[in-house]
Amino acid sequence: MALACVHPAGHDDAMEAFYNMLMVMTEEYENLIVMGDFNTREYEKGIIGLSAILKDSWRTLHPIPSMDSEEMKVIAESEGTGFKDGGPLFKNRIDYIFVSDSFIIRESVYVPDEQAFTDHPAHWARIAF
Question: Total structural domains in the chain?
Fold first, then answer.
């Protein structure tokens, strides 16, 4: 079992190296939790790749209609920032909790910026093994 608490930053090469490291971890560990401020929107390459392998705690419990990354990006640019249905809009969502299939997601919550006293929504989840 492994837990990775992350907060990557940097240019494209640094972010690519970060996501490559996470992909290696998904191969090394059957039971994996990866969480943190990814500084990446869910319609961007890194999150799309990770979501194909690990469960996104928020989207598992709050699914959206199937759409490609370009459709998400267009929506993100048009809707602005804020909350809808208890979670951040596409443009605001940069914090994630991903888990391997061996985990059960019981709850996944975002706390709005103003209540979290931070620059973006705080995120927590309750998971079981």
Answer: 1
**Residues 6+ away with beta carbon under 8 Å from 4:** 22, 25, 32, 33, 34, 35, 36
Residue 60 tokens, joined: 């598992």
Q: What is the CATH number of the domain that holds 37?
A: 3.60.10.10
Cβ count within 10 A of residue 90:
21
- Phi-psi label, residue 36: left if phi above 0, alpha if psi -120 to 50, beta otherwise: left
Range of the domain at 29: 2-128
Instruction: List the one residue out of 99, 96, 109 whose CA is nearest residue 44.
Output: 96
Place of tokens 């961007």: 44
In 56-75, which positions are buried (b, 16+ CB within 10 angstroms) versus exposed (e)?
A: bbbbbbeeeeeeeeeebbee
Q: What pLDDT, in 10s, does the model give residues 34-75?
A: 999 999 999 999 999 999 999 999 999 999 888 889 998 898
β-pair type (95-99, 55-56): antiparallel
